[in-house]
Amino acid sequence: MSLPDFGVYHHSTRKQSEILRESVRDLFSHSFDIAGIRKGEEIRVLDAGCGSGFLCAVVASYFPNAQITGIDLFKSGSLRDLSLDTAVRNMEILGFSRRVEFVTADLTESLKSLGTFDLIVSNLVLHNLGQRRKKAFGNIVEVMKQGAFFVYGDLSTSNEPEGSDSSHDVLGPLRLIYEQRLESKSQYRLQIFRNNIPNR
Ligand SMILES: C[S@@+](CC[C@H](N)C(=O)[O-])C[C@H]1O[C@@H](n2cnc3c(N)ncnc32)[C@H](O)[C@@H]1O
């Protein structure tokens, strides 16, 4: 039986990527405990910049009734040798194919055709987008249901929460409810935001 291959991150070896994923998996699982969504709930989840499906798998094992949509450009870049086929094969290996679908989509373009979500997760994606990050945040906020959570893990050296900077005012409707850095990699920060506004 083959094992899933979630790939090698930029500036990283396979071993380092696997060690980082181990810590990130624990941090995301802990954040789901904090968000307080019941494990058995039939939620819709979006993985923004899913790569080979690493976080899709974390979510699928934590929430056994979740339907998960992973979106990505599926071009090799910050994740070496990324392809849609690898992501699909990983879900087959893990037995998650029925609950995880992949869509080729650009976070800097509207995501409204995907519908709305109870939970959005993202790992190591948005710091790469530069000025286009603001647009991506806006698109994410637009597909969050009222009360939905956005669990956002990324590299950041800033001590200010994402969105406190006026250039990221698109996160304004969201409330930051939790923040933690990785002990082993202090630039890595996870934040949980909650959407408290009604859908427009
Ligand atoms: C470092 S990888 C992280 C992948 C995955 N989240 C993980 O944790 O393994 C960054 C991912 O973001 C994706 N990405 C970058 N810009 C994107 C965009 N504009 N729209 C969708 N995905 C994007 C890349 O294709 C890549 O798969």
Textual characterization of the structure:
The chain is α/β, with parallel strands linked by helices. It has 4 helices and 7 strands, in the order αβαβαββαβββ. It has helices at residues 14-35, 54-62, 84-94, 133-142; strands spanning 44-48, 67-72, 100-104, 117-123, 144-155, 174-181, 188-195. A 7-stranded mixed sheet has the order 3-2-1-4-5-7-6. β4, α4 (133-142) and β5 (144-155) form a beta-alpha-beta unit. α1 (14-35) runs parallel beside α2. The longest helix is centred in the first third of the chain and has 22 residues, at 14-35. The model has no long low-confidence stretch (mean pLDDT 92). S-adenosylmethionine binds next to α2 and β2.
Number of strands: 7
What fold name stands as the CATH topology?
Rossmann fold
Roughly what fraction of the amino acids lie in strands?
A: 25-35%
CATH homologous superfamily assignment: Vaccinia Virus protein VP39
Distinct bound molecules: S-adenosylmethionine
How many discrete domains? 1
Strand order of the largest sheet: 3-2-1-4-5-7-6
Name the helicity range.
25-40%
Tags for this model:
200 residues, alpha/beta, binds S-adenosylmethionine
Task: Please outline what is shown here.
The chain has 200 residues and is of the alpha/beta class. It has helices spanning 14-35, 54-62, 84-94, 133-142; strands spanning 44-48, 67-72, 100-104, 117-123, 144-155, 174-181, 188-195. It has a single domain (14-195), classed as Rossmann fold.
Ordered list of secondary-structure elements with their pairings:
Blueprint: H1 14-35, E1 44-48, H2 54-62, E2 67-72, H3 84-94, E3 100-104, E4 117-123, H4 133-142, E5 144-155, E6 174-181, E7 188-195
Parallel strand pairs: 1-2, 1-4, 2-3, 4-5
Antiparallel strand pairs: 5-7, 6-7
Helix pairs in contact: 1-2
The structure holds S-adenosylmethionine.
